[in-house]
Specification:
heterotrimer, A mainly alpha (about 170), B mainly alpha (about 350), C alpha+beta (about 170), B: about 350 residues, C: about 170 residues, alpha+beta, 5 strands
């Protein structure tokens, strides 16, 4: 009983903080709320007994990536709300479209294959890094490599942007 | 879970929490006393015998001081930052095994608060959370000194976290586990099974990165007094400043404990089977752990008064161009050796 | 002829830095065990070297007469203008006829240059080794004739601080 209570609590925190990330007009507050959201997600992972993933969530997303984000926000000094353009019709339309698609997809899955969402997920529930590593390097090898290629492209792009002449 | 095991966990949590705070107090005292000794002075010796009550006097002073919130600060974040810094600093010690097992009330009690199977990642994750305290304190104070200090120290922490993590990876490769208990168990037996002797390069990288992670000299650019007044906590006073102060010292204590656990066999007493000695063996193991940790805490102060501060570009150069490649090479060598050993 | 200064080429051993770092650590740990130079002031007193210029005193003859003849050479020589003398006839039958009725020194103005000592033809005013005189009001730091004579009694034997050190409880 207490575990399900914990689940509802953290889930509420996660959703609420995610909503406030979007609604808040102060970029720094948004970033902090996003970190809070990551923490709630990490607790959800813990409840699923996926300890490794939980720690990675905190370590990489909250600990490394968001710090850099915060860095950029502080250096750019986006504190002034008026500086942000009020109406970005194209972006708004696109985001609504994306969210709608996402929800549609989830609802579709839930209606057609309700079993998928209730699977115990043996890959992660063992919590061991051995299982995760094996899955990454066998079953999910292609997505893994594609993701690393994507990161490499991003890296090269950053270097190119930062240093025009090498 | 029955009542007894719940009680045992509570006692362990209290013990470790109180122990960490006590160690912080002792460290504050030792810092001033040892610093003085290295400069030919005596240091505080008036409050209590040999000045031992000095940290308590300091604490009372911190509590009684006026709590100033400067104009123009971002109040919610300004108030939040010390808390964000202190909580992870006090939480990290939970996974460090500080002794072997005790058998009490017919059950084996591990001298460790939480035996997590990802212990070392837990510590790395929490230390990376501490960065938020620094960044937010620097930004929310609305002062250029704190902002520069905050940016410097977070850039430094992020750069050295890589070298730190990668040097730990080679240890993980050797032990094949992320659980700190397994890592300690792997170093039992004779002296040469300690990882310092198996991984001297990883130890050096880890040690240097630790000093950068805890913002200690020679890497204390974040609070370089001569240029930045006090770094990210310049605008803080009273208990909020004390919270930063405490978390810095708590971080040092955790760092020392982690160094001992990873490289010096944790609570291991060389050439001795602690488990065969019963409760005395456990006591001995705790004593050995504290002794080793004390040495590394002393080393923090010792190094502080020996080496001058790095320049910022030197710091970044050392982190990215020396320590990072070295730790990568170390991982390759370790991995290659282990693969070859497995083939045989 | 130009001299070519050969710059020192660091060897591999130098580039490792570790031996140099260890050497540095050895230096600091040596100081850790050295004797400490701290003087714990209220418990023990620093003994100033001879010729130290501290608090003033007015000298007396062995039979008790004041040496000063109130010639006001000292107050004339004083660059800080801190010595104030009111002369009068001496109360003693033998010896000098003049004598200071009042002799005040404003210690807050005094710069402890020792010019008064040098100007004095009678060797009556002298600076002593006392350095720890402080008070709560400006008025208390104007020392008068009686005070100056009292200082003479305290410092006659030039052993003011070593006497104080001896009377202290031995340090723990």
């Amino acid at each position: 009983m207490s575990l399900s209570f914990l689940f509802y609590l953290t889930a509420t925190i996660a959703v609420a903080s995610a909503i406030f990330v979007v609604l808040n007009r102060n970029a720094v507050y948004s970033a902090i709320l996003l970190v809070l959201c990551f923490f709630a997600l990490a607790v959800l992972y813990l409840l699923l007994e996926a300890y490794f993933l939980a720690v990675l969530e905190v370590f990489i997303y909250a600990g490394a990536i968001m710090v850099l984000f915060l860095f950029a926000i502080m250096l750019l000094n986006l504190g002034h709300e008026d500086a942000l353009p009020k109406f970005m019709y194209l972006q708004r339309a696109l985001s609504v479209l994306m969210v709608a698609l996402f929800f549609f997809g989830i609802i579709l899955i839930m209606l057609h294959e309700p079993g998928v969402l209730h699977q115990p997920g043996d890959t992660f529930s063992a919590g061991g890094i051995h299982v995760l590593g094996e899955a990454l390097f066998s079953k999910y090898l292609l997505p893994f490599e594609v993701a690393s290629l994507l990161l490499l492209v991003a890296l090269i792009g950053t270097v190119y942007l930062a240093k025009r002449k090498i | 879970m029955d009542f007894l095991s719940f009680f045992i966990i509570c006692v362990k949590v209290l013990l470790v929490f109180a122990g960490t705070l006590l160690a912080v107090l002792i460290m504050v005292y030792a810092e001033r006393r040892v610093s003085a000794f290295m400069q030919g002075r005596l240091g505080p010796n008036r409050v209590g015998p040999q000045g031992l009550l000095q940290p308590i006097a300091d604490g009372i002073k911190f509590l009684m001081k006026e709590d100033i919130i400067p104009d123009g600060v971002n109040k919610p974040i300004y108030l939040l930052a010390p808390v964000i810094m202190l909580i992870p600093a006090l939480m990290t010690f939970a996974v460090i095994p500080f002794g072997s097992t005790i058998t009490l009330f017919d059950r084996d009690i591990i001298l460790q608060v939480a035996d997590v199977n990802i212990g070392i990642l837990y510590i790395l994750a929490l230390t990376s959370i501490g960065v938020y305290g620094i960044v937010l304190a620097g930004w929310a104070s609305n002062s250029k000194y704190t902002l520069i200090g905050g940016l410097r120290s977070s850039a430094q922490l992020i750069s050295y976290e890589l070298a730190l993590g990668l040097s730990v990876v080679s240890i993980i490769l050797m032990s094949g586990s992320l659980r700190l208990n397994d890592i300690v168990a792997d170093q039992q037996g004779h002296l040469l099974s300690w990882y310092v002797f198996k991984q001297p390069l990883a130890f050096l990288i880890f040690l240097i990165a630790t000093y950068a992670e805890t913002n200690r000299l020679p890497f204390d650019l974040a609070e370089a007094e001569q240029e930045l007044v006090g770094g990210y906590h310049t605008e803080y006073s009273s208990m909020k400043f004390a919270m930063f102060f405490m978390s810095e010292y708590a971080n040092m204590i955790t760092a020392a404990a982690l160094t001992v656990t990873l490289f010096f066999g944790g609570w291991d007493v060389p050439l001795l089977d602690e488990k065969s000695l019963g409760i005395w063996g456990a006591m001995l193991s705790v004593a050995s752990f504290i002794l080793k940790m004390g040495f590394f805490l002393f080393l923090f102060i010792w190094i502080r008064w020996t080496f001058p501060r790095f320049r910022y570009d030197q710091l970044m150069k050392l982190g990215w161009k020396v320590l990072l490649p070295l730790s990568l090479i170390n991982i390759f060598i370790t991995g290659g050796y282990l693969t070859l050993a497995a083939l045989k | 002829m130009a001299t070519i200064i050969k710059s020192y080429e660091p060897t591999f051993w130098d580039k490792l830095y570790i031996p140099a770092l260890v050497k540095g650590l050895m230096v600091t740990i040596k100081h850790f065990f050295r004797r400490k130079v701290t003087i714990q002031y209220p418990d023990e007193y620093h003994i100033p070297p001879e010729g130290y210029r501290g608090l003033h005193r007015l000298n007396k003859f062995p039979e008790g007469r004041i040496k000063c003849v109130a010639c006001e050479m000292c107050s004339a020589a004083c660059p800080a203008d801190c010595i104030h003398i009111i002369p009068g006839p001496s109360p003693w039958d033998e010896g000098n006829e003049r004598y200071p009725v009042r002799f005040d020194i404003d210690l807050l103005r005094c710069i402890f240059c020792g010019f008064c000592e040098m100007a004095c033809p009678e060797e009556a005013i002298e600076l002593t080794e006392i350095y720890d005189f402080s008070d709560y009001t400006r008025e208390d730091l104007i020392i008068d004739k009686d005070g100056l004579l009292e200082v003479f009694e305290l410092t006659k034997d030039q052993k003011y601080y070593s006497r104080k050190n001896d009377s202290q409880e031995p340090q723990k």
